[in-house]
Amino acid sequence: MLGFHNRVTFDDVPQERTAKEAGLDFSPLPRVSGRSFVMGLFVSMGGLIFGHVIPHVHNHGGSLTGTSYDTGQISGFLEMPDFLQRFGEYLPDDEGNYSWKFTSVRSGLIVGLLSIGTLVGALIAAPIADRIGRRLSISLWCAVVSIGFVIQIAANDAYEQIVVGRLVAGFGVGALSLLVPM
């Protein structure tokens, strides 16, 4: 082992070789090289895809509506008046007044199927990456996320389409959350 006196020792028997002779290099390394910086940017893209808002906005009839697959932001979309009118149900409240609402089942499906998709995507991503390679697999799963976004964006008034789009996007998000940090 290397002691404070820069000599390699073994079983407390001093050796006559210095650290340099033993092949040990204690020269300081740069903390951030260009390659490690680019790799850090690449890895952070997985966090950006999974953890931050990536809204998709389209114009329909003069009103803006958005869909997002981030679990923290979907609650805001569930309260938007235009989103409620498109994908909610016209239901009475306790006083008999009708308004646009989401039932517990409908809102649960919209919110929860992304998480179910991430679980399934993370489970099936590793065997696929083993077969076709990590780079190609990341590209494939990016395409799956994009397809999920397109399904959600194309939804006009069918909440089922939002649910399926979130499930498909969840497959890609789960797979990318497994593959990108590797």
UniProtKB/TrEMBL annotation:
Keywords carried by this UniProt record: Membrane, Transmembrane, Transmembrane helix, Transport
Domain Major facilitator superfamily (MFS) profile: 39-182
GO molecular function terms noted in the UniProt entry: carbohydrate:proton symporter activity
Main location as per UniProt: membrane
Entry GO terms, CC: membrane
Compartment annotation: Membrane
Secretion signal span: none
Coiled coil: none
Domain of life: Eukaryota
Chain ranges passing through the membrane: 36-54, 109-129, 136-155, 161-180
Membrane-related topology note: Multi-pass membrane protein
One Pfam family recorded for the sequence: Sugar_tr
Family under the similarity heading: Belongs to the major facilitator superfamily. Sugar transporter (TC 2.A.1.1) family.
Record-given protein name: Major facilitator superfamily (MFS) profile domain-containing protein
